[in-house]
Amino acid sequence: MPTPDDFFAIDVRVGTIVRADAFPEARKPSLKLEIDFGPALGVRRSAAQITVHYAPERLVGTQVVAVTNIGERRIDHSDCSGPKSATSVLLNPTVDAAVLETARGGILREGLAFDYCDVAVVTNIGDGDHLGISEINTPEELAKVKRCIVDVVSPKGYAVLNAADPLVVQMAPHCPGGVLYFAVDSEHPVIVRHRSVGGRAVFMRDGQIIFADGNNEEPLMPVASVPLTLGGKIGFHVENTLASVAAAWCLGVSLDTIRDRATTIAADVGKVPGRFNILEIEGSTVIVDYGHNLHSLWAVIDVVNKFPQPRRTVVYSTAGDRRDCDMIRQGELLGAAFDRVILYEDHYRRGRAEGEIISLFRKGVESASRAKEIIEITGATKAAEAALNIVQPGELLLLQADKIDETMEWIRQYVAKLIEQKAAAEELIEEQAPEPAVKAKPVPAANEKLPASEINAAIMAEAPAVAKA
Hints:
Layout: H1 4-8, E1 12-22, E2 31-36, E3 43-48, H2 56-59, E4 63-67, H3 83-90, H4 104-110, E5 117-122, H5 139-146, H6 148-151, E6 153-162, H7 166-169, E7 178-185, H8 189-196, E8 200-205, E9 208-213, E10 216-222, H9 235-250, H10 255-262, E11 277-281, E12 284-289, H11 294-304, E13 312-316, H12 324-337, E14 340-345, H13 356-366, E15 373-378, H14 380-390, E16 396-400, H15 404-432, H16 452-462, H17 465-468
Parallel strand pairs: 5-6, 6-7, 7-8, 12-16, 13-14, 13-16, 14-15
Antiparallel strand pairs: 1-2, 1-4, 2-3, 8-9, 9-10, 11-12
């Protein structure tokens, strides 16, 4: 239920309609509006279901009262990386800018939801994922699919490409606009060569994020001041940060704004669930991450190796449409990095026989030298519960989120239950504790003097209650 604070957070302003058009694409009869809210906000777009009473031409010049902020509101909980979700965003007349994840599956099924884009970001191809599906069998073939967004960059736009991934670098000649490379290494040959011909780049040097335009350099900020990177320790989030600030720069966002927003981005459970969320539960360090392919697992383990806890447990699985060799290889990585491996199957068997995914992972785990304990469980939350009951204070647990929302909600309930149990136990201890014994003070001898403080206390104790007030 909304609270008074929610009401006072609403920003209500008066604006003037400067343009009104028909909106035939809308599901309900509506008009598209452009409203001028003055120098502070400028012209904003909206839609209104007022076609029965107003014609578009009558609205121009009319003043309206509008709420100009709706807060951080999540409107969908499903996989929104395909063209249908992108279309629903792009058709909304109130949207001024859209950031669209564009997954391989949606491209192969239906293509892109847009004709062109201002910025295309490709972070990596690596060893590839979902290989063997839809006749995409190699990382090179996957790169051609992922390149689609680079192909449609507008002539005035940019492709933001990972200089450290050769298959991503090969996309550059296909971009109709400009190219910006990013990498942690400021001396990466691709970046050095690109800058020598006047190209743009974003990279790291001495802990600073640097923007470069040819030979000109502009320090942006220390990477450690971006909470998402955990002081620069989470390598893949450092690269994600470089790509993100580079995209904003290519869109013409001011450096001050980029700095300001970058300091607010963190791996918060509520805003970025399943993306290396770090929790402390009963003395154990619990990391929750959604990574489920070879490349992401390697990147997560690289970060886990920087944590001090000597004993580690992992809860892990993957979707059944991955290749046998990919599952075995992931098992090898798990077995080499963790002392205890808990394997599970749940929602994503995708045609595999029961136990088949676990069997392939076990094969890989058993070939490694570190893991001494392998546990097999059916059900993601059951596996998570088993792990949290096993791990001891001072240990580390990497918990893979099977279905992100379901896993995070289960963890919230698990922690809430622990808090309730702890509070109940403390209350019971207090109830059962004996009343403290009152220790009588020895009566002073006739010739012994009490300190002034004790004399005053004795007087106050004997005085009427009204006197104490």
